[in-house]
User: Which sequence fits this backbone?
């Protein structure tokens, strides 16, 4: 049985509100999306053989398909890793992710938007995908019971540390606050929204800095000290992320 989700007419998906097949509105609150549980894919083990491929429109002759590895998943999106000389799907509105053997389903096809890409090695990339409609709600609980999915393990610390944000396209130079951090990413609040998928630099008052890519950015319902937006940023390099994590905790 194959499940296929067609896209609603929105520019950026949000956390689902309602049934698994309802069109998702534009994101209004960071709280829904940021704290929706994410589950990492368990490598190996019984019934853990999830197969994935990314299909990107090439021309009138058909789609270009690349096998990929599913890294983590929730009802709103996922992260994948694949091998290719260049990143895929960043300019397409019709990119499709197909997952086989997830929770014993034959095939689940999701129309997706590529929200960020980072290079993970030579001819190897990781991408964050937003589902244009929610994943069928039964798949994640069934995947957990089958031993395919598990809670993410990156520990997140709540902090309140000043940070300077520098983004080149479009140009942003603003001050903000780091409000939570892990070894893999950081959440900040700032006066300006950030551009999803764009690289930026985060610099602390002591001069220590890290480079990341914006995964999400949303207007806050309650503004504190002029911080109208909250944003999530994934570190591009693991070693840099661990060092920046320790630097932030040293100032907290």
Assistant:
């Amino acid at each position: 049985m194959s499940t296929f989700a067609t896209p609603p007419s929105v520019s950026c998906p949000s956390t689902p509100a309602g049934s698994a097949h309802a069109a998702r509105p534009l994101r209004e609150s960071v709280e829904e999306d940021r704290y929706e549980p994410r589950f990492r894919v368990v490598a190996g083990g019984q019934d853990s053989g999830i197969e994935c491929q990314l299909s990107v429109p090439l021309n009138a002759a058909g789609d270009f398909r690349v096998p990929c590895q599913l890294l983590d998943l929730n009802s709103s999106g996922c992260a994948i890793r694949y091998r290719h000389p260049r990143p895929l799907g960043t300019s397409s509105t019709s990119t499709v992710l197909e997952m086989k053997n997830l929770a014993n389903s034959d095939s689940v096809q999701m129309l997706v938007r590529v929200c960020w890409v980072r290079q993970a090695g030579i001819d190897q990339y990781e991408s964050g995908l937003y589902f244009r409609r929610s994943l069928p709600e039964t798949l994640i609980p069934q995947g957990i019971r089958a031993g395919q999915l598990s809670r993410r393990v990156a520990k997140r610390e709540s902090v309140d540390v000043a940070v300077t944000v520098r983004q080149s396209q479009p140009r942003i130079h603003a001050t903000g606050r780091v409000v939570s951090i892990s070894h893999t990413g950081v959440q900040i609040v700032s006066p300006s929204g950030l551009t999803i998928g764009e690289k930026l630099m985060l610099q602390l008052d002591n001069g220590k800095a890290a480079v990341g890519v914006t995964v999400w950015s949303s207007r806050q319902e309650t503004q504190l000290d002029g911080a109208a937006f909250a944003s999530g940023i994934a570190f591009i390099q693991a070693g840099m992320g661990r060092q920046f994590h320790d630097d932030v905790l040293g100032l907290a």
Observations:
- The first helix runs from residue 30 to 34.
- The chain has three helices and 15 strands.
- Residues 1-35 have pLDDT under 50 and may be disordered.
